[in-house]
Each structure stands twice: as structure tokens, then as C-alpha cells.
Amino acid sequence: MKLPSVLSSVAAVLAAASAPASAQTIAVTGGTVALGDGSAPIVGGTVVIRDGRVVAAGQGVAVPAGAQVIDATGKWVTPGIVAGFSRLGLVDVDGVRAANDESSSGAFSAALDATTALNPAGAPIAVNRAEGVTRAIVAPSTGKNIFAGQGALIDTGADSEPVTRARLFQFVELGENAAEIAGGSRAAAHALLRNALREARQIAGGSGASPSTAARGSDDPSADPVVANPNESRSYDARRNNDVLLTRYDAVALVPVVQGRQLLVVHAERAADLRQVMALKRDFPRLKLVIVGADEGWTVARDLAASGIPVIASALSDLPAQFEQLAATQSNVGRMRAAGVKVAIGTINDDEQRMAFRARWYAGNLVGLSKVPGATGLSWGEALAAITSGPAEAMGLGGDVGSLRPGRRGDLVIWNGDPLDNLSAAEAVFIDGVRQPLETRQTKLRDRYRSLERGALPEAYRR
């Protein structure tokens, strides 16, 4: 065989080995099926996934000919958990700075793209996948600017292509942390935020709506709207005032935000800060806002509901770590939902680099809280939706992920018990219809050391 033929064969083998498994038609039958849309579980349901998408789910669903049938009798079947707020893939080992890519103290802020630093092979990804997390909203963390950069939706699949939607949102800090970054006061942080949005609106054409850019509908928020506008002959610099604070790259990255083409995700906890976020819509009406945290959200729940701004809340905060959380209560999520707020569960500032899967435990606790006199929790269906379809809908992706409704991505988990019970575990995880490995570094260590023969340990351990 000639050398070129040999190299071609080797390349084909390597490509096949590195490619993810292909999706097929799968029918999961006989389980207790929860759609993740807030509805009650369906006993003896069937879920059919074809070509990576949900075809049907419920009772009386026919099993297609030739489908791989998985008997889930006695099991629970749900959509995969969507981590409402995380930094999965950006941090491997806290103690090793070189393994931490969640924040930057460099020259750029808003222009940073978290997907360029993602490590899909990181240990936290595998751990969360094994715990039933199939998608994660991933945000960078702030460095020396209140703008952290552009976050994304990723999947936790065991392959090298984790990004579902890049540059999905811009993340900005407000409150105590932002006050410190901005110079020591909340007033400075809010002024920085508004100034940055005005700079972006200025270069977009004054009103924040550049016709050619909006019509172009680019998914690339870093594209320069000035260059894209054939009717605009003025240079980029001619559009800017002399007192600008942002770099050119950062200012351009915020243009899609003021045009409403990219979400602005704001971390705020105190009621007063939440009101300031809601007030942004008066000056920047095109903004599409999402609030993260909102520990005092219940105190302004009616205003939040009226604003229509989705909230991805911390579920069980009740012991304030900062002064801006003095009104924190475990009833926060339940009270906001009761007032009509579109609320989901996230884990900001709660080991979100590694343990985003704890949102499932929190959701279960909120179900239990509903049985406590004087407290306000969630129903079972509401709690599951808060960790599946809720985060997806908050980010504008409810039609693609987060539930077992037809047409959604085939992200499915089979559990050995009630998924909102802390003692239950995932037995099978599918992402885009592909079954995923559940092996982690922790399971390898468990299997290695739990049944050692006498004398199997190195000599140093036998002394």
C-alpha cells in the first residue's frame, strides 16, 4: 500500500474515533415521565427521540419501528437539567491560577467571549453530566470592570464541541461587588453601566438602532456595525466623543445589547438595585434584560412581574452573606412566582464552577418548603420547570431546550427515583439523543480503592 493511502486510512480511523456517537431513534417506555414544563408527572409514559430531537412524549405514544427501546419501568424520565447560572468549563482547579479562566484583569471586558476559554474535558463538566445536567448557562466573572464579557449556552456532552449558542448574553455585575470595582459606591457602578450603554448606542447610530445592522441580523455581536452600514461614510472614531471610557472592542461588543439583539444579564441582589435595573428600560427601551440572584426580589415582586424581566434566582438564600441580602428568605422564589415573576433557579456565587447540579437539590427543598406553615415554596412540577425549561425560557431558548415537548433537543435523563429527591441518581443521560458516559474522576477513584486486595497499596501506605 502506498504511503498516501496509508495516511488516508489512518486519518479516517482517527476521525471516526474522535467523532461523537450519532443520534438514533430511541423510545423510552414505561417510566414516570415529567415534561419539565410545569405539568404533573405522567405515569407509564413514553418518550420518542429521533435524529436528536424529541418527537413525542406522554401516554399512548406509539413506538416507531426499528427504534431502540429502553424499558424505564419503575424509573423517572425527565428533560436534562439546565444549569441556570454557572461557570462550568472555565475553572478546573481553584488552587492553580493557570487553570482558572473565569475572569480577566486585562485590557478588555465586554468584548471577552467565554467560549474561547471553555474546556469541555474539565472534570467539573463530567461530574455535572453524571448528575443529570445536560445544558448550562455559562458566564464569565468580573475582573477590573463591571462588565465580565459574553456568556453562552453549552452542553455537557463527552465531545469537543460544547457550545450550543455562543455570545448569547452580556454579563454585568451590580451591587456590592460592582461598587467596589467601580470605585467604592453603587452610584459609580450604575453610572459606569449607563455610560457604557450610551457609548454603544452612540456608535450604533444614536437611537441604538442601526437599520442595516438590525436587518443584517448577525449572530456575531462583535461585528462592527459601522463597517456593516454601507450608507454610513463616517469612520468609527468620528462617531465617538472624546471622553469615552470603553475600548473600541468593548464598545462594539455592547452594540447588540442596546439594539436588543443580545441579552443583558445583570447580577443584583438588593431591592434598590433591582429597581435600578428595571429603570434601565426607560432610557434604553430596546434592552432585553435578565436578572440573576435577586435575593430581595420578593420585596419588589409586583414590579418585577410588571416589568416582564425574567429572574434566575438563588433558591435557598436565607442567611445574608452581605448587607445587600438582609431581606433574604427561602420563600423568595415561591413568593416571586406567586406574584407572577418568571423565575428559574441558578447557583450564582454558590460553587457554580463545579456544583451547578445542586440546583436539583434546591428545587426539591422548595417542594418541601411548600409544606412548611408560613413559608412559600413550589409545587413539584413548578420546581422541576425551574431547573429545566425555566432557565431556557429566561434566555429565550425555551423552544429549543429544557423540556420534552416535541421539537426540543433530545436531552433526557432516566433516574432511579424521584429526581427532586436528593437520594436519587441518574442512571442514563442523553444529550441530543446520544447516550453519554457517566464515568468521572470520582467514580474511577471509588472503583479503584473500594475493594483493594491486601497488599495492593503502595509500600508507603502499609507502614
How much of the sequence is in beta strands? 15-25%
Number of helices: 15
User: What's the alpha carbon Rg, rounded to whole Å?
Assistant: 24 Å
What is the tally of beta strands? 16
- Mean pLDDT across the residues is 87
| Shape, per Cα inertia axes | globular
How many domains is the backbone divided into?
2
Strand count, sense and barrel status of the largest sheet are:
8 strands, mixed
> What is the CATH superfamily classification of the largest domain?
Metal-dependent hydrolases
Brief descriptors of the model:
463 residues; alpha/beta; Urease, subunit C, domain 1; TIM Barrel; eight-stranded mixed sheet; 28% helix
Describe this structure in words.
The protein is α/β, with parallel strands linked by helices. It has 15 helices and 16 strands. The strands form two sheets. Strands 1, 2, 3, 4, 5, 14, 15 and 16 form an eight-stranded mixed β-sheet that branches. It has an eight-stranded mixed β-sheet with strand order 6-7-8-9-10-11-12-13. Helix 9 links the parallel strand 10 (263-268) and strand 11 (289-293). Residues 1-20 and 207-236 have low confidence and may be disordered. Residues 331-421 form the Amidohydrolase domain. Residues 203-235 are annotated as: Disordered. Residues 1-23 form the signal peptide.
